[in-house]
User: Fold this.
Amino acid sequence: MGYPARMQQDRHIVNLALIGFMGTGKTSVGRLVAEQLHFEFLDTDELIQSRTGRTIADIFALDGEPAFRALEQQVVLELAGHKRTLVSTGGGLPTNSTNLAALKKHALVICLWASAEKVWERISHQAHRPLLNDPDPRKKIQELLAVREPFYKQADVLVNTDLRTMREVAQQVAHQYRFALSGH
Ligand code: S3P
Assistant:
């Protein structure tokens, strides 16, 4: 995959954004990479929770998914102006093209990819994700991942996490960021 970040003139890359499905390690990897690059770490779900004083599950349950998506977009648009920031994003965020376009203006967008089987292995014991509150969460993961794949593939760089530890993924992400900005 190439590095359109250097080629498009309307892009001024000073941040790094991680997109990808639930359970791909965006938050864990993001914290590690932020530490390595001496970047500030932000997580869109955490921003929404601290702003509203409510959990994501609560927002989904009481106000519905569209209300959550509106908050998500608001948070993304407010990120312009940040510098040396690593933004970890919620799994559904790049399905809104406004969000992806807004991130690409100032951030190199890296997608952490995982197969549906690996996602299931990593998150089947967790219960806080409203979209997986489903009679057949395993099937739901496969379906959602298939629908979202074309959006995730619009990232500048795709990193497969299936056979890597979070530390290895973090190394790869930091390397890709440095490489993209080095002009090679
Ligand atoms: C969502 C993923 C979650 C959170 C919300 C919706 C999604 O974030 O934003 O539950 O649509 O995939 P993580 O990807 O951090 O789990």
